[in-house]
Amino acid sequence: MKKFKMPTSYTVVFFALLVATVLSYFVPQSHFDSETGKIIVNSVVDANGNILEGQGLVQFGLFDVLMSIVHGFESSSNVSVGILCAGGFLAVLNHVEALEAAIISLLNKFKGNVLIALMMLVFAILGTTFGFWEEITAFAVVIIPMFVLAGYDIMTGLAILFIGATIGNMASLVNPFSVGAAVAAIGNPDLTIGSGIILRSIIFVVLYLIGTFMVIQYASKVKDDPKKSIIYDLEDKNNLMDVEATPPEFTGKRKASAYVLVAVIILIVLGNFPWERLLGESAMNAVNAPITFLAGIPVLGDLLGAGHFTLLGDWGFSEFAFTFLLGAFVLKFINKIPEREFMHVFMDGMKDLMGVVVVLAISRGIATMVGTSTQGMSVTFIYWLSSALEGVPLWVFGIMAVLVYALIGIFLQSTSGVAGLSMPILGTVAAALFLGTAIGEVGGQILLISAFVAGVNFLSSFYPGAVIMGTLDLVNVPYDRYLKFAMKTLCMLLFAAALIIAIAPYIGIVS
Protein backbone atom coordinates (compact mmCIF):
# COMPACT_ATOMS: atom_id res chain seq x y z
CA MET A 1 0.00 0.00 0.00
CA LYS A 2 1.47 3.32 -1.07
CA LYS A 3 1.99 5.96 1.59
CA PHE A 4 -0.20 9.03 1.08
CA LYS A 5 1.69 12.10 -0.09
CA MET A 6 0.28 15.58 0.35
CA PRO A 7 -0.25 17.07 -3.12
CA THR A 8 1.59 20.21 -4.13
CA SER A 9 0.14 23.64 -3.43
CA TYR A 10 -0.64 23.93 -7.17
CA THR A 11 -2.88 20.86 -7.04
CA VAL A 12 -4.57 21.94 -3.81
CA VAL A 13 -5.42 25.39 -5.17
CA PHE A 14 -6.53 23.94 -8.53
CA PHE A 15 -8.82 21.55 -6.65
CA ALA A 16 -10.33 24.56 -4.88
CA LEU A 17 -10.93 26.10 -8.31
CA LEU A 18 -12.80 22.95 -9.38
CA VAL A 19 -14.90 23.11 -6.20
CA ALA A 20 -15.83 26.71 -7.03
CA THR A 21 -16.85 25.53 -10.51
CA VAL A 22 -19.08 22.78 -9.10
CA LEU A 23 -20.68 25.28 -6.71
CA SER A 24 -21.80 27.35 -9.70
CA TYR A 25 -24.37 24.60 -10.45
CA PHE A 26 -25.98 24.99 -7.03
CA VAL A 27 -25.28 28.52 -5.77
CA PRO A 28 -26.94 31.38 -7.67
CA GLN A 29 -25.21 34.66 -8.31
CA SER A 30 -26.55 37.80 -6.66
CA HIS A 31 -26.11 41.53 -7.11
CA PHE A 32 -25.39 44.27 -4.58
CA ASP A 33 -27.21 47.46 -5.54
CA SER A 34 -24.98 50.31 -4.37
CA GLU A 35 -27.79 52.86 -4.78
CA THR A 36 -30.23 51.13 -2.44
CA GLY A 37 -27.65 49.28 -0.34
CA LYS A 38 -29.61 46.04 -0.78
CA ILE A 39 -28.61 42.61 -2.07
CA ILE A 40 -30.79 41.26 -4.88
CA VAL A 41 -30.52 37.49 -4.50
CA ASN A 42 -30.49 35.21 -7.56
CA SER A 43 -29.83 37.95 -10.09
CA VAL A 44 -27.30 39.00 -12.71
CA VAL A 45 -26.54 42.21 -14.57
CA ASP A 46 -26.69 42.13 -18.38
CA ALA A 47 -24.44 43.99 -20.81
CA ASN A 48 -26.69 47.05 -20.66
CA GLY A 49 -26.57 47.27 -16.87
CA ASN A 50 -30.06 45.87 -16.34
CA ILE A 51 -30.61 43.66 -13.29
CA LEU A 52 -32.19 40.33 -14.31
CA GLU A 53 -33.86 38.79 -11.28
CA GLY A 54 -34.41 35.03 -11.01
CA GLN A 55 -31.60 34.28 -13.50
CA GLY A 56 -28.65 34.07 -11.12
CA LEU A 57 -27.71 30.42 -11.68
CA VAL A 58 -24.75 30.68 -14.08
CA GLN A 59 -22.93 27.38 -14.58
CA PHE A 60 -19.22 27.25 -15.40
CA GLY A 61 -17.46 24.52 -17.40
CA LEU A 62 -14.02 23.36 -18.53
CA PHE A 63 -13.49 26.40 -20.77
CA ASP A 64 -14.24 28.71 -17.85
CA VAL A 65 -11.89 26.81 -15.53
CA LEU A 66 -8.89 27.14 -17.83
CA MET A 67 -9.74 30.67 -18.94
CA SER A 68 -10.05 31.76 -15.31
CA ILE A 69 -6.39 30.81 -14.84
CA VAL A 70 -5.42 32.83 -17.92
CA HIS A 71 -7.39 35.79 -16.60
CA GLY A 72 -5.77 35.13 -13.23
CA PHE A 73 -2.33 35.70 -14.75
CA GLU A 74 -3.61 38.97 -16.21
CA SER A 75 -5.27 40.30 -13.07
CA SER A 76 -2.42 39.29 -10.75
CA SER A 77 0.30 40.60 -13.06
CA ASN A 78 1.18 43.59 -10.86
CA VAL A 79 1.60 41.36 -7.81
CA SER A 80 3.50 38.74 -9.81
CA VAL A 81 5.95 41.27 -11.25
CA GLY A 82 6.61 42.58 -7.75
CA ILE A 83 7.33 39.09 -6.45
CA LEU A 84 9.59 38.22 -9.40
CA CYS A 85 11.58 41.46 -9.05
CA ALA A 86 11.97 40.83 -5.31
CA GLY A 87 13.31 37.35 -6.11
CA GLY A 88 15.81 38.75 -8.59
CA PHE A 89 17.00 41.42 -6.15
CA LEU A 90 17.49 38.93 -3.31
CA ALA A 91 19.39 36.58 -5.61
CA VAL A 92 21.83 39.36 -6.54
CA LEU A 93 22.17 40.39 -2.87
CA ASN A 94 22.99 36.80 -1.88
CA HIS A 95 25.34 36.47 -4.83
CA VAL A 96 27.56 39.30 -3.57
CA GLU A 97 27.33 37.91 0.02
CA ALA A 98 26.47 41.35 1.40
CA LEU A 99 23.86 40.20 3.92
CA GLU A 100 26.03 37.46 5.43
CA ALA A 101 29.02 39.82 5.68
CA ALA A 102 26.88 42.53 7.31
CA ILE A 103 25.56 40.14 9.96
CA ILE A 104 29.07 38.90 10.77
CA SER A 105 30.17 42.51 11.15
CA LEU A 106 27.35 43.16 13.64
CA LEU A 107 28.30 40.03 15.58
CA ASN A 108 31.85 41.33 15.94
CA LYS A 109 30.82 44.85 17.02
CA PHE A 110 28.11 44.21 19.62
CA LYS A 111 28.00 42.05 22.73
CA GLY A 112 25.56 40.71 25.34
CA ASN A 113 21.88 41.59 25.42
CA VAL A 114 22.37 44.40 22.90
CA LEU A 115 23.69 41.87 20.38
CA ILE A 116 20.76 39.51 20.98
CA ALA A 117 18.21 42.32 20.61
CA LEU A 118 19.93 43.59 17.46
CA MET A 119 20.14 40.15 15.82
CA MET A 120 16.50 39.46 16.68
CA LEU A 121 15.59 42.77 15.04
CA VAL A 122 17.63 41.99 11.91
CA PHE A 123 15.97 38.62 11.34
CA ALA A 124 12.54 40.00 12.26
CA ILE A 125 12.93 42.75 9.65
CA LEU A 126 14.06 40.21 7.06
CA GLY A 127 11.01 38.11 7.89
CA THR A 128 8.53 40.97 7.80
CA THR A 129 9.76 42.29 4.45
CA PHE A 130 10.99 39.22 2.52
CA GLY A 131 9.56 36.21 4.36
CA PHE A 132 13.01 35.11 5.57
CA TRP A 133 12.89 31.39 6.46
CA GLU A 134 14.45 29.05 3.90
CA GLU A 135 17.84 30.74 4.43
CA ILE A 136 17.97 29.97 8.17
CA THR A 137 19.99 26.75 7.87
CA ALA A 138 22.76 28.54 5.96
CA PHE A 139 22.91 31.37 8.51
CA ALA A 140 23.02 28.89 11.41
CA VAL A 141 26.60 28.06 10.41
CA VAL A 142 27.53 31.68 11.14
CA ILE A 143 25.22 32.63 14.02
CA ILE A 144 25.47 29.61 16.33
CA PRO A 145 29.30 29.43 16.67
CA MET A 146 29.43 33.18 17.36
CA PHE A 147 26.97 32.92 20.25
CA VAL A 148 28.63 29.81 21.65
CA LEU A 149 31.93 31.74 21.69
CA ALA A 150 30.15 34.59 23.48
CA GLY A 151 29.21 32.23 26.34
CA TYR A 152 25.70 31.21 25.31
CA ASP A 153 24.41 27.84 24.13
CA ILE A 154 23.30 26.44 20.78
CA MET A 155 19.63 27.00 21.63
CA THR A 156 20.23 30.74 21.99
CA GLY A 157 21.49 30.87 18.41
CA LEU A 158 18.54 28.78 17.22
CA ALA A 159 16.11 31.05 19.07
CA ILE A 160 17.53 34.19 17.49
CA LEU A 161 17.14 32.66 14.04
CA PHE A 162 13.77 30.91 14.36
CA ILE A 163 11.94 33.19 16.77
CA GLY A 164 13.40 36.33 15.21
CA ALA A 165 12.23 35.30 11.74
CA THR A 166 8.87 34.10 13.11
CA ILE A 167 8.20 37.52 14.68
CA GLY A 168 8.72 39.17 11.30
CA ASN A 169 6.72 36.60 9.38
CA MET A 170 3.78 36.74 11.82
CA ALA A 171 3.57 40.51 11.29
CA SER A 172 4.53 40.64 7.58
CA LEU A 173 4.42 44.40 7.07
CA VAL A 174 5.12 44.33 3.34
CA ASN A 175 5.93 40.67 2.69
CA PRO A 176 5.02 40.02 -0.97
CA PHE A 177 4.94 36.25 -0.50
CA SER A 178 2.20 36.32 2.15
CA VAL A 179 0.43 39.71 2.28
CA GLY A 180 0.92 40.21 -1.46
CA ALA A 181 -0.43 36.74 -2.19
CA ALA A 182 -3.44 37.30 0.08
CA VAL A 183 -4.30 40.65 -1.50
CA ALA A 184 -4.04 39.11 -4.95
CA ALA A 185 -6.24 36.15 -3.99
CA ILE A 186 -9.00 38.34 -2.53
CA GLY A 187 -9.05 40.47 -5.68
CA ASN A 188 -10.45 43.61 -4.04
CA PRO A 189 -9.13 46.66 -5.98
CA ASP A 190 -9.29 48.71 -2.77
CA LEU A 191 -6.64 46.50 -1.14
CA THR A 192 -2.88 46.97 -1.67
CA ILE A 193 0.19 45.48 -0.03
CA GLY A 194 0.20 48.55 2.23
CA SER A 195 -3.37 48.02 3.45
CA GLY A 196 -3.25 47.30 7.18
CA ILE A 197 0.36 48.40 7.59
CA ILE A 198 -0.45 50.29 10.82
CA LEU A 199 -2.09 47.24 12.40
CA ARG A 200 0.73 44.94 11.33
CA SER A 201 3.35 47.46 12.53
CA ILE A 202 1.79 47.37 16.00
CA ILE A 203 1.79 43.56 15.90
CA PHE A 204 5.45 43.62 14.83
CA VAL A 205 6.55 45.90 17.69
CA VAL A 206 4.62 43.99 20.35
CA LEU A 207 5.82 40.57 19.15
CA TYR A 208 9.39 41.82 18.90
CA LEU A 209 9.35 43.12 22.48
CA ILE A 210 7.84 39.89 23.84
CA GLY A 211 10.07 37.56 21.82
CA THR A 212 13.27 39.47 22.50
CA PHE A 213 12.56 39.70 26.24
CA MET A 214 11.97 35.95 26.50
CA VAL A 215 15.06 35.03 24.46
CA ILE A 216 17.27 37.42 26.47
CA GLN A 217 15.83 36.00 29.70
CA TYR A 218 16.82 32.46 28.67
CA ALA A 219 20.21 33.50 27.26
CA SER A 220 21.18 35.42 30.42
CA LYS A 221 20.25 32.44 32.58
CA VAL A 222 22.39 30.11 30.47
CA LYS A 223 25.35 32.49 30.43
CA ASP A 224 25.27 32.78 34.24
CA ASP A 225 24.92 29.01 34.69
CA PRO A 226 25.53 26.75 31.65
CA LYS A 227 23.84 23.87 33.48
CA LYS A 228 20.50 25.64 33.02
CA SER A 229 20.73 25.15 29.27
CA ILE A 230 17.85 23.04 28.00
CA ILE A 231 20.36 20.96 26.03
CA TYR A 232 23.12 20.81 28.70
CA ASP A 233 22.83 17.02 29.08
CA LEU A 234 23.17 16.28 25.35
CA GLU A 235 26.56 14.75 24.64
CA ASP A 236 26.60 14.76 20.84
CA LYS A 237 25.35 18.29 20.18
CA ASN A 238 27.31 20.14 17.51
CA ASN A 239 28.16 23.81 18.10
CA LEU A 240 29.55 24.06 14.53
CA MET A 241 32.85 25.41 15.84
CA ASP A 242 34.74 22.95 13.64
CA VAL A 243 32.90 23.87 10.44
CA GLU A 244 35.48 25.01 7.93
CA ALA A 245 33.93 28.04 6.35
CA THR A 246 35.61 31.31 5.49
CA PRO A 247 33.17 34.09 6.34
CA PRO A 248 32.94 36.81 3.69
CA GLU A 249 34.83 39.99 4.50
CA PHE A 250 32.71 43.12 5.00
CA THR A 251 34.37 45.07 2.21
CA GLY A 252 33.40 48.54 1.04
CA LYS A 253 31.33 47.08 -1.80
CA ARG A 254 29.46 44.72 0.53
CA LYS A 255 28.88 47.54 3.00
CA ALA A 256 27.40 49.69 0.22
CA SER A 257 25.28 46.71 -0.89
CA ALA A 258 23.95 46.28 2.66
CA TYR A 259 22.98 49.96 2.66
CA VAL A 260 21.07 49.35 -0.57
CA LEU A 261 19.04 46.66 1.21
CA VAL A 262 18.29 49.06 4.09
CA ALA A 263 17.31 51.79 1.62
CA VAL A 264 14.98 49.41 -0.26
CA ILE A 265 13.21 48.40 2.97
CA ILE A 266 12.84 52.02 4.14
CA LEU A 267 11.58 53.18 0.73
CA ILE A 268 8.96 50.42 0.55
CA VAL A 269 7.66 51.21 4.05
CA LEU A 270 7.58 54.97 3.33
CA GLY A 271 5.85 54.40 0.02
CA ASN A 272 3.11 52.23 1.49
CA PHE A 273 2.51 54.22 4.69
CA PRO A 274 -0.81 56.16 4.44
CA TRP A 275 0.69 59.58 5.24
CA GLU A 276 -2.20 61.79 4.17
CA ARG A 277 -4.97 59.63 5.62
CA LEU A 278 -3.34 59.30 9.05
CA LEU A 279 -1.24 62.45 9.47
CA GLY A 280 -2.75 64.91 7.03
CA GLU A 281 -1.74 66.66 3.82
CA SER A 282 1.16 68.55 5.45
CA ALA A 283 2.85 65.27 6.44
CA MET A 284 2.31 63.93 2.92
CA ASN A 285 3.92 67.05 1.43
CA ALA A 286 6.81 66.94 3.89
CA VAL A 287 7.76 63.32 3.22
CA ASN A 288 7.55 63.94 -0.55
CA ALA A 289 9.50 67.23 -0.44
CA PRO A 290 12.72 65.66 -1.86
CA ILE A 291 10.77 64.29 -4.85
CA THR A 292 9.10 67.66 -5.44
CA PHE A 293 12.50 69.36 -5.21
CA LEU A 294 14.07 66.98 -7.74
CA ALA A 295 11.15 67.43 -10.13
CA GLY A 296 11.78 71.18 -10.12
CA ILE A 297 15.44 70.91 -11.15
CA PRO A 298 15.82 71.56 -14.90
CA VAL A 299 17.24 68.71 -16.99
CA LEU A 300 18.15 66.53 -13.96
CA GLY A 301 14.51 66.26 -12.89
CA ASP A 302 13.51 65.29 -16.42
CA LEU A 303 16.33 62.74 -16.74
CA LEU A 304 15.34 61.10 -13.45
CA GLY A 305 11.65 61.20 -14.33
CA ALA A 306 10.99 62.80 -10.94
CA GLY A 307 7.88 64.52 -12.25
CA HIS A 308 6.31 61.12 -12.90
CA PHE A 309 7.33 59.57 -9.59
CA THR A 310 4.44 58.15 -7.55
CA LEU A 311 4.17 60.07 -4.29
CA LEU A 312 5.15 58.24 -1.12
CA GLY A 313 1.95 57.10 0.51
CA ASP A 314 0.22 56.30 -2.78
CA TRP A 315 2.28 53.24 -3.67
CA GLY A 316 0.99 49.92 -4.94
CA PHE A 317 2.54 46.75 -6.36
CA SER A 318 4.00 48.49 -9.42
CA GLU A 319 6.13 50.80 -7.26
CA PHE A 320 7.02 47.80 -5.08
CA ALA A 321 8.44 46.05 -8.16
CA PHE A 322 10.20 49.25 -9.30
CA THR A 323 12.06 49.53 -5.97
CA PHE A 324 13.47 46.00 -6.18
CA LEU A 325 14.36 46.42 -9.85
CA LEU A 326 16.18 49.66 -9.07
CA GLY A 327 17.93 48.03 -6.11
CA ALA A 328 19.14 45.15 -8.28
CA PHE A 329 20.68 47.53 -10.84
CA VAL A 330 22.35 49.55 -8.07
CA LEU A 331 23.87 46.32 -6.69
CA LYS A 332 25.15 45.47 -10.18
CA PHE A 333 26.99 48.77 -10.53
CA ILE A 334 28.33 48.82 -6.96
CA ASN A 335 29.80 45.32 -7.30
CA LYS A 336 30.74 45.71 -10.99
CA ILE A 337 28.97 42.48 -11.90
CA PRO A 338 29.38 41.64 -15.60
CA GLU A 339 26.18 41.95 -17.62
CA ARG A 340 25.91 38.24 -18.46
CA GLU A 341 26.58 37.16 -14.87
CA PHE A 342 24.10 39.71 -13.49
CA MET A 343 21.32 38.60 -15.82
CA HIS A 344 21.98 34.93 -15.04
CA VAL A 345 21.75 35.53 -11.27
CA PHE A 346 18.75 37.86 -11.54
CA MET A 347 16.82 35.48 -13.80
CA ASP A 348 17.60 32.53 -11.52
CA GLY A 349 16.13 34.50 -8.62
CA MET A 350 12.97 35.19 -10.62
CA LYS A 351 12.78 31.57 -11.75
CA ASP A 352 12.80 30.35 -8.14
CA LEU A 353 9.55 32.25 -7.52
CA MET A 354 7.63 31.28 -10.65
CA GLY A 355 5.78 28.67 -8.60
CA VAL A 356 4.35 31.43 -6.41
CA VAL A 357 3.19 33.29 -9.52
CA VAL A 358 1.37 30.19 -10.80
CA VAL A 359 -0.38 29.71 -7.44
CA LEU A 360 -1.45 33.37 -7.52
CA ALA A 361 -2.89 32.98 -11.02
CA ILE A 362 -4.96 29.94 -10.03
CA SER A 363 -6.17 31.67 -6.86
CA ARG A 364 -7.27 34.70 -8.87
CA GLY A 365 -9.09 32.21 -11.08
CA ILE A 366 -11.05 31.14 -8.00
CA ALA A 367 -11.87 34.79 -7.29
CA THR A 368 -13.10 35.11 -10.90
CA MET A 369 -15.42 32.13 -10.42
CA VAL A 370 -16.71 33.23 -7.02
CA GLY A 371 -17.26 36.87 -8.03
CA THR A 372 -16.67 40.36 -6.69
CA SER A 373 -18.10 42.36 -3.80
CA THR A 374 -20.97 43.54 -6.02
CA GLN A 375 -21.77 40.61 -8.33
CA GLY A 376 -21.44 36.82 -8.25
CA MET A 377 -21.74 33.82 -5.94
CA SER A 378 -19.69 35.88 -3.50
CA VAL A 379 -22.62 38.28 -2.99
CA THR A 380 -24.90 35.30 -2.30
CA PHE A 381 -22.40 34.05 0.28
CA ILE A 382 -22.31 37.54 1.80
CA TYR A 383 -26.12 37.52 2.03
CA TRP A 384 -26.22 34.11 3.70
CA LEU A 385 -23.31 34.81 6.02
CA SER A 386 -24.59 38.24 6.99
CA SER A 387 -27.74 36.59 8.31
CA ALA A 388 -25.88 33.73 9.99
CA LEU A 389 -23.27 35.97 11.60
CA GLU A 390 -25.67 38.66 12.72
CA GLY A 391 -24.99 39.44 16.37
CA VAL A 392 -21.60 37.66 16.48
CA PRO A 393 -19.05 39.91 18.26
CA LEU A 394 -16.35 41.21 15.91
CA TRP A 395 -13.56 40.10 18.25
CA VAL A 396 -14.64 36.47 17.87
CA PHE A 397 -13.89 36.63 14.14
CA GLY A 398 -10.32 37.84 14.75
CA ILE A 399 -9.45 35.08 17.20
CA MET A 400 -11.16 32.33 15.21
CA ALA A 401 -9.46 33.42 11.98
CA VAL A 402 -6.01 33.18 13.61
CA LEU A 403 -6.77 29.69 14.95
CA VAL A 404 -8.27 28.51 11.65
CA TYR A 405 -5.16 29.57 9.74
CA ALA A 406 -2.91 27.88 12.29
CA LEU A 407 -4.84 24.65 11.63
CA ILE A 408 -4.77 25.09 7.85
CA GLY A 409 -0.98 25.43 8.09
CA ILE A 410 -0.78 21.83 9.33
CA PHE A 411 -1.97 20.57 5.96
CA LEU A 412 -0.44 23.12 3.59
CA GLN A 413 2.94 24.69 4.31
CA SER A 414 2.86 27.35 1.62
CA THR A 415 1.74 30.89 2.40
CA SER A 416 0.83 31.59 -1.21
CA GLY A 417 -0.97 28.24 -1.41
CA VAL A 418 -2.96 28.87 1.78
CA ALA A 419 -3.83 32.37 0.55
CA GLY A 420 -4.98 31.05 -2.81
CA LEU A 421 -7.02 28.28 -1.21
CA SER A 422 -8.77 30.31 1.46
CA MET A 423 -8.87 34.02 0.65
CA PRO A 424 -11.50 33.97 -2.13
CA ILE A 425 -13.98 32.39 0.33
CA LEU A 426 -12.88 33.74 3.73
CA GLY A 427 -12.46 37.17 2.15
CA THR A 428 -16.19 36.99 1.49
CA VAL A 429 -16.83 35.98 5.11
CA ALA A 430 -14.84 38.98 6.33
CA ALA A 431 -16.72 41.28 3.97
CA ALA A 432 -20.05 39.92 5.20
CA LEU A 433 -19.24 40.27 8.89
CA PHE A 434 -17.81 43.77 8.73
CA LEU A 435 -20.18 45.21 6.14
CA GLY A 436 -21.92 48.14 7.82
CA THR A 437 -19.40 48.42 10.67
CA ALA A 438 -17.02 51.32 11.28
CA ILE A 439 -14.12 49.60 9.50
CA GLY A 440 -16.21 48.29 6.60
CA GLU A 441 -15.58 45.51 4.10
CA VAL A 442 -11.95 46.47 3.43
CA GLY A 443 -11.21 46.67 7.16
CA GLY A 444 -12.60 43.18 7.65
CA GLN A 445 -10.36 41.83 4.91
CA ILE A 446 -7.36 43.62 6.44
CA LEU A 447 -8.07 41.82 9.72
CA LEU A 448 -8.36 38.53 7.82
CA ILE A 449 -4.98 39.05 6.14
CA SER A 450 -3.37 39.90 9.49
CA ALA A 451 -4.91 36.76 11.03
CA PHE A 452 -3.68 34.72 8.06
CA VAL A 453 -0.02 35.76 8.35
CA ALA A 454 -0.08 35.37 12.15
CA GLY A 455 -1.72 31.94 12.17
CA VAL A 456 0.11 30.30 9.29
CA ASN A 457 3.55 31.56 10.33
CA PHE A 458 2.97 30.56 13.96
CA LEU A 459 2.46 26.99 12.75
CA SER A 460 5.52 27.21 10.48
CA SER A 461 7.68 28.17 13.47
CA PHE A 462 7.52 24.63 14.87
CA TYR A 463 6.23 22.54 11.96
CA PRO A 464 8.75 19.71 11.39
CA GLY A 465 9.57 20.77 7.85
CA ALA A 466 12.85 20.85 5.96
CA VAL A 467 14.13 24.12 7.45
CA ILE A 468 13.58 23.28 11.12
CA MET A 469 14.54 19.61 10.91
CA GLY A 470 17.54 20.33 8.68
CA THR A 471 18.88 23.00 11.02
CA LEU A 472 18.30 20.87 14.14
CA ASP A 473 20.04 17.95 12.46
CA LEU A 474 22.98 20.22 11.67
CA VAL A 475 23.54 20.92 15.38
CA ASN A 476 22.32 17.50 16.63
CA VAL A 477 19.54 18.97 18.75
CA PRO A 478 16.43 16.74 19.07
CA TYR A 479 13.15 18.17 17.81
CA ASP A 480 11.45 17.65 21.19
CA ARG A 481 14.06 19.86 22.91
CA TYR A 482 13.41 22.64 20.43
CA LEU A 483 9.67 22.33 21.07
CA LYS A 484 10.19 22.34 24.84
CA PHE A 485 12.17 25.57 24.54
CA ALA A 486 10.23 27.37 21.83
CA MET A 487 6.55 26.60 22.47
CA LYS A 488 6.17 28.89 25.50
CA THR A 489 7.52 31.87 23.57
CA LEU A 490 5.66 31.01 20.37
CA CYS A 491 2.32 30.62 22.18
CA MET A 492 2.88 34.00 23.83
CA LEU A 493 3.45 35.50 20.37
CA LEU A 494 0.28 33.88 19.02
CA PHE A 495 -1.77 35.07 21.99
CA ALA A 496 -0.49 38.64 21.61
CA ALA A 497 -1.14 38.71 17.84
CA ALA A 498 -4.65 37.27 18.23
CA LEU A 499 -5.46 39.75 21.00
CA ILE A 500 -4.35 42.75 18.93
CA ILE A 501 -6.33 41.54 15.90
CA ALA A 502 -9.40 40.93 18.09
CA ILE A 503 -9.45 44.42 19.62
CA ALA A 504 -8.28 46.28 16.49
CA PRO A 505 -11.82 47.10 15.21
CA TYR A 506 -12.68 48.70 18.54
CA ILE A 507 -9.64 50.96 18.94
CA GLY A 508 -9.27 52.29 15.40
CA ILE A 509 -5.98 50.69 14.31
CA VAL A 510 -7.27 48.86 11.21
CA SER A 511 -5.25 50.89 8.67
Automatic annotation (TrEMBL):
InterPro entries: C4_dicarb_anaerob_car-like (IPR018385), DASS-Related_Transporters (IPR051679)
Pfam families (UniProt xref): DcuC
Subcellular localization, as worded in the UniProt entry: Cell membrane
Keyword Membrane: yes
GO cellular component terms given for this protein: plasma membrane
Keyword Ribonucleoprotein applies: no
Topology versus the membrane: Multi-pass membrane protein
Keywords: Cell membrane, Membrane, Transmembrane, Transmembrane helix
Transmembrane segments: 81-107, 114-133, 139-163, 197-219, 256-275, 287-309, 315-333, 353-372, 392-412, 419-440, 446-469, 490-509
Record-given protein name: C4-dicarboxylate ABC transporter
Species annotation: Erysipelothrix larvae
